[in-house]
Structure formats: structure tokens, C-alpha cells
Design a protein that fits this description.
The protein is α+β, with helices and mostly antiparallel strands. It is built from eight helices and ten strands.
DNA sequence: GAGTATGTTATATG
DNA sequence: GCATATAACATACT
């Protein structure tokens, strides 16, 4: 969704000025080098792998953008207000700008020469929306840790966040702590499909979860919220170090976990 | 003041 | 070295 916004907002435009308002969001690049690399360049394309965005420039140089937890990009008229969390602005030759804002500053902006090199360096797995069913099953089942931790591991596959891992596991009726390597491959195939559906659905509604169909966990994702299937109430646990919301009746814990408790 | 938050990564542990 | 778990990061809000 953000990629599309960038495509429509900056494609073909030439950068005339780069303003770094807070260099805390810069990753392995100085404000001066960033400005130098981008000056005079024209935006050729915008790509995405997982949560990572790549703004490719004519004549080389690729701007890398990761939104972290609270990052956002907008295309505005130059000088338009962009709030107290504005961190970076790229001004174009047509009096518009790409404005990056980020409350918590967990985002990262940098420069690379090639997407392939960047991906190899960060060891990013295949994009969650592009990965084939077979590759998904092979990669996920290669790990013994809890299935949710595997889904969130950007090295296994890229693009699944905490909320979407919860959603896909709820849809597939799989407990988040179930060891990934112990899940039947036909259940993983179902999970693959449901994960891609959940991600696509979220993009389709621009992450406005209220617009999702009623069966979605994301609409009621809070401790004590109603199970979308009407099977009681949702509970909260910690999985992979993250808040995890699940329905204990739909997502039964596997036998191996029951034994741990006893 | 305490607790929590949609992500990644460095560090600790076994 | 490998797999996994946890802390740390910066900031606002309940």
C-alpha cells in the first residue's frame, strides 16, 4: 500500500533537495552523503520486499526505507505541515515532497547500490506474498521453535508482522507456540494460503481493520475480545517475545506443550 | 509512575 | 557455530 502511494506520488520526479530533520533514522549513511547521492536524481521505480521499500533512481543509487513500528511516508505539497514527527523530506522539482515521519524512530533509511546486495547483506527471506507453497513449507518446517516465532523471522520469510502472524494462525487454527517442524505439511499449506489472504486483505483495506470481513481476528484483537467464530473469548500470551492474541478454543495447544505444563 | 505498543538486532544462554 | 530467548532501542499514551 505504501509502495503504491510512493509510485503515484514520486515516480519520475527529480529530487532537488534532501532535508534530514533527525539523523536518528539514518542507517549506515550520513545526512550529507544521502543528500549527495540523491541530488538531481529521478525516481525510476519503487520496489518492496517484505517490510523493506526500495526507491530506485535513474542513474543508480537506491533509497532504502523501512517504516519500523511507527514510520510513515506521504507525498505532500512542499512545505505542507507534516507534524511533529517529521524526520526526512525529499523535495522534488514539481513543488511536492516525500515526507517521512516516525514517532518512535525505529525506522531506517539508507542507501544501497543494489537490491540483491542489500537483501543478501540483511539475509532477508522471500517476500511473504511471493513465496511459493512448497518453499514456504520447506523453510518453515526447518525450524523447531514456535510457529509464530518462525513466521516473524524475516530471514525465513519477509513481511509478516506481529498482527498478521496472529491473524493467520487464528485462521488456520494453529497454536502460536506449536513447534513449526511438528506441524503437518498439509496444515502448513493451508497456513500459507491463509497468510497470503490476510496480508492481501489488509492491503486491500489500507490496514483499516474495521473494513475487514467479520471473520477476521484483527477486528477484535484484544485480550477478552470476542472470538470471531463465536468460540468464547480471546486471551493474551507472550510468544516470540511479543504480545500474542489467540482463541484458546479454536487454537488448541499441541500435546507437546500440554506436557510442559504438567 | 507503571505498563504497553504494529520491528529489528545485539547479546545472552544452553 | 547453531537455535532460541531476551533486552534494548525512543516516545507517546492509557
Amino acid at each position: 500500500m505504501v509502495r503504491r502511494r510512493l509510485v503515484s506520488g514520486c515516480m519520475g520526479k527529480r529530487i532537488v533537495k534532501t532535508s534530514v530533520l533527525d539523523d536518528g533514522i539514518l542507517d549506515r549513511v550520513s545526512a550529507s552523503r544521502l543528500a549527495k547521492v540523491l541530488k538531481g536524481r529521478r525516481v525510476r521505480s519503487v520496489e518492496r520486499i517484505g517490510k523493506q521499500l526500495f526507491v530506485e533512481m535513474d542513474g543508480g543509487g537506491i533509497l532504502t526505507i523501512h517504516l519500523g513500528l511507527t514510520g510513515d511516508v506521504e507525498c505532500l505539497e512542499t512545505g505542507a505541515k507534516n507534524g511533529r514527527w517529521a524526520r526526512l523530506s525529499l523535495q522534488f522539482d514539481d513543488a511536492t515532497e516525500l515526507a517521512y515521519s516516525d514517532l518512535r524512530k525505529f525506522g531506517a533509511i539508507g542507501i544501497t547500490d543494489s537490491i540483491e546486495a542489500f537483501v543478501a547483506d540483511r539475509k532477508l527471506g522471500p517476500d511473504a506474498l511471493m513465496i511459493t507453497e512448497d518453499d514456504f513449507v520447506a523453510r518453515v518446517s526447518a525450524h523447531r521453535k514456535g510457529i509464530k516465532a518462525v513466521l516473524l523471522d524475516q530471514h525465513v520469510l519477509a513481511g509478516v508482522g506481529n498482527l498478521y502472524a496472529d491473524e493467520a494462525l487464528f485462521q488456520a487454527r494453529i497454536h502460536p507456540l506449536a513447534p513449526a517442524s511438528g506441524i503437518q505439511s498439509r496444515r502448513l499449506r493451508v497456513l500459507h494460503r491463509l497468510l497470503q489472504e490476510a496480508l492481501s486483505a489488509s492491503i486491500a483495506v489500507e490496514t483499516d481493520f474495521e473494513r475487514l470481513p467479520s471473520g477476521y481476528l484483527l477486528r477484535a484483537r484484544r485480550k477478552g475480545g470476542p472470538c470471531p467464530r463465536g468460540n468464547g473469548y480471546l486471551v493474551s500470551i507472550v510468544a516470540a517475545g511479543r504480545t500474542t492474541i489467540l482463541c484458546p478454543r479454536c487454537q488448541r495447544s499441541p500435546r507437546s506443550l500440554e506436557e510442559k505444563v504438567h
